[in-house]
Amino acid sequence: TGGPVVLGIETSCDETGVGIVRGSTLLANVIASSMDEHARYGGVVPEVAARAHLEAMNPALTAALAEAGIGLDEVDAIAVTSGPGLAGALMVGVGAAKALAVATGKPLYAVNHLVGHVGADVLAAESLEYPTIALLVSGGHTSLLLVRDLVDDVELLGETIDDAAGEAFDKVARVLGLPYPGGPQIDRAAIGGDPAAIRFPRGLMQAKDLEKHRYDFSFSGLKTAVARWVERADDAGEEIPVADVAASFREAVVDVLLTKAFRACADYGIPRLLLGGGVVANARVREAAAERAAAQGVTLRIPPLSLCTDNGAMIAALGAQLIQAGHAPSDLGFGADSTLPV
Ligand code: KG4
Ligand code: ZN
User: Fold this and answer.
1) Does the domain at residues 129-302 carry the CATH identifier 3.30.420.40?
2) Is the CB of 281 under 6 A from ligand 1?
3) Where does Fe cation bind (predicted)?
């Protein structure tokens, strides 16, 4: 199939991603993660991530071209994440993309990371219709978007006002003595646990919150509640029921995420929901989302996990969409913007 060949570069967090697409066909998706280097700190260390990107960039570019079976001369355009994300990490990708563009004379498209997550869906065999609601949940972001048009009209409905959902998983895992990243660990620990064993608080779900924060999220209170609960049990000399705590915590996160996402579908009369971000790997997120989608008549889309977590292919795919919609390339004067709005 046709379409422009676009090479996408993603370095907003700890994944160095280089992907190549032809139109909406995936040709390569190479990801190098510095996750292991952050593990002993219990979270992503920006300086460590930036250095790792610098080291991983050239090998990732070479590997992506090899995987796609093409030479750099066959690439029509370059796309890069210019934000939001960690400033120093973004700068490595932006710098590499500009260098490539200048050296080859190819057009360069600066794109938004969150919109890129939505763009991943065009790589699916049958992609979603618009408008759609999109829920993006990772260690760095928790955002609810109303996507009327991928390249022209994306509205941020809400986002976390404190911790990202993945961050909450990572912090609670630490409280339970489980290693980083905590999401998969909590998922495993929750097997056999009772999700109703402990009623942990749901952030921004009270009637009084709904006016100002209808689609916003808050997970720091939940994290603190879990820490207090474990501390109290510890002090009382009780054995910590890890499976029950993990299952109850996970249920609280999933409940809030999905209640707000499906509420947006209902409010806007949009029966389509796209999920993205690393937390989408969560077994309970997937199960509960499928249940609610069936009950509410919503078409649920979850890209394969390699396209849900941060990657370069989604950035390339969004770049190709921009080109096909007739957008002009970015002026090379753009910088990295850690708080870039959608
Ligand atoms: O999208 P991602 O790979 O990277 C960024 O954060 O940018 O997401 C990683 C996050 C981590 O916080 C990790 O704990 C979480 O996603 N995660 C999960 C699961 N797998 C990964 N959270 C809940 N359940 C999981 N199974
Ligand atoms: Zn992301």
Assistant:
1) yes
2) yes
3) 113, 117, 310
